[in-house]
Design goal:
This protein is α+β, with helices and mostly antiparallel strands. The chain folds into 2 domains: 6-85; 95-219, Histidine kinase-like ATPase, C-terminal domain (Heat Shock Protein 90), CATH 3.30.565. Helices cover 56% and strands 16% of the residues. It contains 6 helices and 5 strands. Strands 1-2-3-5-4 form a 5-stranded mixed beta sheet. Strand 2 (152-159) and strand 3 (163-170) form a beta hairpin. The radius of gyration is 21 Å and the shape is elongated.
Length: 225
Amino acid sequence: MFFTGNSDFNERVSMRAAEFCEQIILEMGAELHDEVIQKLTSMSLYIERIDRAAGDPSEILSLVTRMRSDFENITRSVRAISSRLHPVQSTGVSFNTSIIQLCDSMQRTGNGHISVAIFGEELSLGQLSFTYLYRIVQELVHNAFKHSAAWNVNVSVSWMPALLVIDVEDDGTSHAKMDDLTASLQNKYNTLQIRSQAIRATIKYVKGKKGLLAKVEYPLVGNTR
């Protein structure tokens, strides 16, 4: 990329920052609508149905039971969104441990399972790289459950002398649609690509054993971010 001067450089940086912020706002807005607002709307429908079922204890009990289940789902959704907004705490906690804790917190009881495998000897990461790699894993796992209808997500963290490789694979994406999906994701400029570029990492999408495999590669040599 060629810059003609400081003003050109500042303008491009500002545009990238604005794109980044706008992308996050759009994603969080969509998530709030899909995961919270729609489910809260259903609560008012339950109340109306309970009013109409007055005098029928069995029907009221059935509605309350379903209402309680839906409310628990809303609570989990709010916690998940809140977790995504919390700052990443890395002081005194290794990257491996942070990823294990993250995946444990994102488990979906009865609806999905996350497994984590660690390979190699962990090396130190800069604060920005630590934070962005954590967020990338968080978003990939979230997307696997939300968009791929996955039941299982496998996360592997492989430390090599010069490279950190993080694989996130789901079992929910149809292989019949895989070529179109991987091409679309590879060309999509979103927060995953923005964060990857900011720390000189790459993210690729390929066909996995049972679904979509996202492969993140982060160079450890000469990368101080």
